[in-house]
Each structure stands twice: as structure tokens, then as C-alpha cells.
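Incident review: delayed structure delivery

Summary: a single-chain prediction request sat in the queue longer than the usual turnaround. Root cause was a stuck worker, restarted by the on-call engineer. No data loss occurred. The affected request and its eventual output are reproduced below so the record is complete for anyone auditing the incident later.

Affected input:
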Amino acid sequence: MAKNALIEHRPWLLASVVAACAYYFLWNNPIGELYLIILKGSAVGLLALYAWRRTHGGDGLILVAVLALSAAADMALVLDITIGGALFALSHVAAIALYLRNRRNRTTSSQKLLAAALFIGAPVISYLLSQDILIAVYAVSLGGMAAAAWLSRFPRYRVGVGAVLFVISDWLIFSQTGPFDLSPVPNMLIWPLYYSGQLMIATGVVQTLRGEKPAY
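Output delivered after worker restart:
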């Protein structure tokens, strides 16, 4: 039943998953850089289309912007890391706005502490891994996004965990530029962690905005 609902009513979500899996297995294949760039961007780009089709109102538009900026960043990173990083920072700022508009009414002390740890830890660990102050500055927006997600009314074990997976994937990217050699872990896990995080964020926010119970 859930599988049929996914295919019949959420084709863009299914197409996104297919694109993400295809990119993971083809990213190092000499099929042409342009094709790989488009394939990479389509994974989260299709999540943006899914969100646009399944939501309405201001919060839905912000979610679409978050995902569309991320998709653009995915493609830009292949060509220029500075432009890609700037687009991701804009995506994080938009996500923070979405989460702050949807703050949880009550949060426990442990939840606040974890949010603070994400906000502070993201730039600190990013700097330790990369030894690059500009990456640490970018990671302030990354940590702010994860912290705000954790304190939002969206399902914590989907949207909050998805944001944490996003942070971890970025840490693996930063480790490739610094003194720590974690290979082959980054090449194996960066894309699965990143895409899984985006998928969890998109579906968690969409279902909350629609007032739905999880169907898959």
C-alpha cells in the first residue's frame, strides 16, 4: 500500500531517489562531466519539485527554496567550490528561517544542549578537520541550520537527524582538505549521508506541513 502510494502520488520523490542512486554508482564513471553534473543536481532538485507539488503557503515556498539552492550548490561545487559553498550557505540561511518560523513550543534542557553543541561544534570541528578559517565561517550557517532543525516542531528523528547527517557529510568533505586522511571513508559515505539527510528533511517537513501521518 505504502509502495503504491509512493509510486502513484509521489513520482518526483521516487525519481529523486533513483537519480541519487544512479549518481552514487556513476560519479566516478567517465560518461561525461556535464551529464554527471546534471544527474547530481537532479537528485535534490527533484526533492524541490516534490516539495513544490506537495505543499503550499510561505513555509512550503521556503522549503522549495532551501532544496533548490542545495541542488544548485551541488552542481556548482563541481565547477567552483566558492560559488557552491555560497549557495549552500544561502540554503542554510533559508532553512534557519523555516525552522525558526516553526519553533517547538517546549524543549527540554537536553534538547537545548544538543542544539547548542551542533551550533558550536559544526564550525569548530570543521576548522579542526580543514584548518581553513573560511570553511569554519561557512560552517556557522551549517551549525545554525542543524541547531534550528533540532529545535523546530518538525519530527526530530527525521528532520533533526537529517540535518545532523548533512553536517557529518560536510565534515567528511572538509577532512579531504586538511591534515587528516580518512580515505576511503569520505568517497564512500559523503553522498549517501548528504542525500539521506536531504531526503529526511524534505519528507519530514512536507508531511508536517500537510498534517499527514508517515506513509513510508
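Verification: The mean pLDDT is 91.
Action items: add queue-age alerting; document worker restart procedure.
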